[in-house]
Amino acid sequence: MGNVTTTQPHLEFAAPRHETVVVSTLRTTGIGVFLCLLGVLCALGFGVDVGPNVVASFTVNYATSNLVSAFTVHTEWVSIALGGLCLLLGIFLIIRPRFRFPVILLSVGFLATLFCLLMWAQRSTPDLPMSLGGFVTGSLSYATILIFGSLSGAMCERSGVVNIAIEGQFLAGAFCGSLVGSAVGNAASVDMGYLAGGVAGIAIGALFGAILAYFALRFGANQIIVGIVLVLLATGLTGYLNFQILDVYQNLNAGNVALPIGIPYLDQIPLLGPALFDQNVYAYIADVLVVVVSFALFRTRWGLRVRAVGEHPKAAETVGINVIRTRYKSVILGGAIAGLGGAYYTLGLAGGFSPGLTGGLGYIALAVMIFGQWRPYRCLGAAALFGSMFVLQNYLQVYNTGINNALLVMLPYLVTIVVVTGLVGRVRPPAADGIPYSRE
Amino acid sequence: MTIAEDGVAISDESAQVPIPRTPKRSRLRRTGQYLASSNQVVVAFYGLIIALVVGGVLLTFSTPPTLHAVTSLFDHPGASFATIFSTIGDTYRELFTGSIIDPAQLAHSISTNQQWSLTITPLSETLVNATPLIVAGLGIGIAFETGVFNIGGASQVTMGAVAAAYVGADVSMPAPWHVIACLLAGLAGGALAGAVPGVLKALTGAHEVIVTIMFNYVVGSLLIWVLETPWLGLQAPNQGDTISKAMPSSVSLPHLFGPNLRVDLGLPIALAAAVIAWWLLDRSTMGFRFRMTGASPSAARTAGVDAKRTTILVFLVSGAFVGLAGAIQLVGFDNAIGNIGPQGYQGAIGFTAITVALLGRNRPIGIVFGSVLIGALVWGAFQVEAQAGISPDLTNVIQGVMLLCVATPALVAHIFRLRPGTAASFKFGGWGT
Question: pTM here?
Answer without folding.
Answer: 0.88
